[in-house]
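Slide 14.
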Amino acid sequence: MKIAYFDCFAGAAGNMILGALLDAGLDVGRLTGELEKLGLKGYDLRVFSAIRRGIGGTFVNVAVDEAVHRHQHRRLPGIRAMIEKSSLKPAVKARSLAVFERLADAEATVHRIARDEVHFHEVGAVDAVVDVVGGVAGLDLLGVEAVYCSALHVGGGTVASAHGILPVPAPATAELLRGVPVYDQGIRSELLTPTGAAILTTLASGFGPMPAMRTASVGYGAGTADLEIPNLLRVQIGDTEDDAAGYRTEQVAVMETVVDDMDPQIWGHVVQRLFDMGALDVFLSPVQMKKHRPGTLATVVCRPEHVRIFADVLMRETTSIGVRWRTEDRITARRVVVSCDTPLGTVRCKFAFREDEIINVKPEYDDCRRIACETNLPLKTVMETAKRFAFIRKRETGSDAEGAI
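Slide 15: predicted structure.
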């Protein structure tokens, strides 16, 4: 599997992500060709060689025509319409929208308003649209299937914004960093911008040390400021050491705790909360403990960087006073979610692939159960119908629809 690992020793910004990808071999002509599909006018993508503290990289500047875009503070619905109307690949559209939706949610939380009411200011300006869509499209053009990232260097001090002087990390950035490993080494500058944080926290499958990989290319994206450290974002692109041809390998954390003195009704709430927070899997197993007491073994599978927050949930929500955890390798099939129109209604279906071969398809249970209740049909009939029409749609379109998950 081809992956990209971003080493954020000087933070990250949208233009630094673009610069790193171009420096690692992304063709600027192909990138501008993808950006033209947005139909966005009034800007020029300028690419320069740059040196930061003796290390060479690529600096990207999105030069915006002020006469065209003066005072344009976009909202999410307008950005969504622009991306959806474009001729970009469905997966690129989906991932770009996911970045902006995550960003809008963070801004909405900070300003205590609805997501669609957020005025993006710096974040929604033309340069941010180019940075987000360009970053997502650039990774796709390079054939990157998964993104991994180091802990994020955020910087400190204050920064000027459309809202006035703000602390670093900016409030929206801090909101985006929930559950993500971050650090500050005393540099009084904004190293991690909201756009950079939104792109990396949306696309990254994990944060931490570089996974085992065979590096094929290395690129450096230059930041604007002259800092006491090299103001660069490094990306390394290469292939993972796959244990099984055609599948993906990754590291996960496995957490366990045993409880024998809690009202079992609480488990339903705990399991749902863990899933809502992003657990990859949660399951309960009956066990017999000391003095022959029956107990429950709770197992949580999650990203390694989420261990601490899930341990906190387990010990706050249950009567557990200790959680053990370990890292394990797992092999997974590539998965794609497709919204399928059937005679009974629309059902999301998850396809599993070994390379380009479909090895499994599973209709979404909640969608099928809703239709079964509305139509008074047996649930198994709805699921069989959805599965049949999912295969028909896949043969007809051959697309990844909503994109890999």
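Speaker note: The CA atoms of residues 227 and 348 lie 48 Å apart.
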